[in-house]
Amino acid sequence: MKHDLNIANNKWLTHPTGDAFADLGGYVIKTLHHRFPEKNILELIEYVTKIYVDKWDAKINPFFLNSPVTQNSFKTPESKKEKTRLYFENMFNDTTSLKGICSITGQPNQLFPATRKNSILTGSGKFINFHHSFTDGIMLSKEAITRFHFVPLGGIYLQGKIALIQSNNPAIAELFAVINCNKNLEAIAKGASEGILKSPCKSAGTAIFRFIDEAVIDIKRKTDQHIHPRANNALTLYHFTNFGASPEVTLYQVPGKLFYFYTFTQTPAVKKDWNAFINSHYYSNDYKKAQYQKDTQQYQWSQKNQETFIEEADYQTWSNQIYNKLIDGKSILRDFVRWSVDNAFQFKIVETYQTYIQNMKQETISKINQMAEFILRANDKRGIEKAIKALNGARNSYQLRRFIIKDIVAKYYQEKNEEAIITVEDYANYLFPDTSSWQEIRDVLLIAIFQQLHEKDIELDKLQLENEEETEQES
Predict the structure, then answer these.
(1) 420 φ/ψ sector (left φ>0, alpha ψ -120 to 50, else beta)
(2) Which residues contact 362 (CB under 8 A, 6 or more apart)?
(3) Which listed residue, 104, 219, 257, 377, has the most CB atoms within 10 A of its CB?
(4) pLDDT (tens digit, 9 = 90+) per residue, 397-406?
């Protein structure tokens, strides 16, 4: 008895499973099924196999090791396509294989061994101890193995490896597959496709945020709403190769809080300020020492007395120091400080970053703003410059505490105000709780001062801030 080959009648060819590779392949099958509803699954397998062999010269080695497509013993294109067709045809017609639970779909089914020749980043026949119960491979259903065959159409080639996106929101993961699959098919139709789709991005971090840009536009188009913090959209970029003797994978994660923060920076109220900040932090080994020109939003690069101006659409594919820090979980607060010296920058961006990424209490931010307002009100320009230098020069919490008590609390008291600017509760719970970093208090206060100076159009003498990423921590 033959299995039903109609894609619409077998949801496990396309239904999300939680496995990044199987899901990507499923989304590609779904995309192709929409384009070619008359084709059954074996016909779609033949269709993509022709692309791999005839258009891409069988160069899908980063995905599969010694598959019928990549195996050197099959010399001719026709033999590669025929062996692939027979493999899947026999699997779909098989009624005698082992029955059990598929390790990916979780459904009872006939099972087949999945190794590096037909799946991604699994074990191989020579290392059966890699698999449960010393089987020839991880035991999967025909649907799961079939989905792997479609992955090359949905991934991208990024910096020498393959990249794909997985998300807790299936719509986001599907969008990645649909975009890449459609780009591949468009290039094939134009006769311009010679291999796996290549990303123009020069780093994984940049590729992730360029994709989030597309996801935000797609979500806004479909829902007419901006992303809510409680949506908790998270994603992971798999950067891998299954090639030869050196298979490997690196995961780059965007937690829900970071996803929301970035989408917040793309809202109309703050996007211009964020983009100016982020654009100034791109870099490329091909354009060393290129300088960002804020007025023209271009990078200016000088070589052999010739000036080259690089437009935003081009440099937005470069590596970016801020993106890399966000992906690595490193603080960008000191970068905000340095940018704020010379640039007006909406404090709401810093406030949102501290609240959602760094878990700073809203009461702490409010108290910092209040202190910044007092510093500007109680001092002339020279006094403000002195306060900034003292703050930036703080090397431990003692020096910061001393500054707050001497230059804020004491001065405020001398004005004979009825209420204290900082209460014992403020001091213990919001400014210096055990869970807080004194460096963050210092840096947010500096940013608040600079931004209020910009708002009030007060110009100070040129200030030189420390360049160190982190100042010395107290023991």
Answers:
(1) beta
(2) 355
(3) 104
(4) 999 999 999 9
